[in-house]
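Hi! If you just cloned this repository, the fastest way to understand the data is to look at a raw example. We've pasted two of them here, unedited. The first protein comes first, obviously.
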Amino acid sequence: MADPVIINPSLTLAGQAAAFDADATGIELKITHVSFGRGHYDPTGAAVALVDPVGSKIPVAGCSRPTPYQLRITSAWQENVGTVAVGEIAWWAGNVLVFVWSKADGQVAVYKTDGTPYVMFNDLAFSQVPGNSISFTIDPLESVALAALTEHE
């Protein structure tokens, strides 16, 4: 049996700034999309885009908030983009890259192939910003089943 890949994304400086700005105005920064790429690097926080993106931004299909500093997000990548070894993942608030995951050692999160959706279910923790300052927007056209899965604890 293969060892699971631990996806522990890093909060970007742009994401941190946007969360503090949102908190100062009494609103929340909304995670809206996820995207994937082939790049391999150790995130420094300075990223504003993926190094080698593949496909489109994917809407969030489901989300819950287990704690004030954590989001549990589900998304389904259904595009046909060929066979892709996913080496980087991004979480977006509109056009702001908020979180990014990648590994310089070449670790692959998943292999995406045509005809098969990749369902990503993960938690995002954000202790560097005020509690409840980051939220989410769920696309109503995405799967109700995925949204229900995210709510289940």
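Ok, and the second one:
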Amino acid sequence: EKSSSIIIDYCYNMGFVTMKGSGGYAAGIVGGLSFDPSSGTRKVSNVYNVGMVTNSGNPQRAYALCSSDKTSGNLSIVNGAYLAGSASNASTPCNNVTATNVKEVAGAEELLAVVSAYAPSEEGNVYVRDTALMNDGYPILARQALSHENVTTYDCGRRFCNDCHAILSSPEE
């Protein structure tokens, strides 16, 4: 709803985001958000994006991190990182958003250095090195780095960790 609160903390995007058409906005974490600017909390924090974001109808409306409708006005992002070139509008990572501590990075090591400096969340979320390569070497949340001993394997070969709720992409993990 337009009056709802939105709080996104310790979230990342690895996938492709594609907008087809010219009327909207695309972004790696939050895109095209429209809401009543006089109510609710809209905060994005401790996030990163390495997935490619495109808008085929209007390449200037594709942002690496966040975008809100120009009338919304009170979406904020604190602590965000994005891979260089991860949006077709590479010069602007956020649109109509109050941005604090948003950084462009060149690769997984630089990204890890940036996101591991974020303070832990109330739930204890922190980013750590992806030593098991479950996220293509990009940082993962500490809870994802568990040993994955309590795993369900489905007929298709996909494995699911019942402890951290991670989908393990290959039987070797």
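That's it. A detail worth noticing about the second one: The mean pLDDT is 85.
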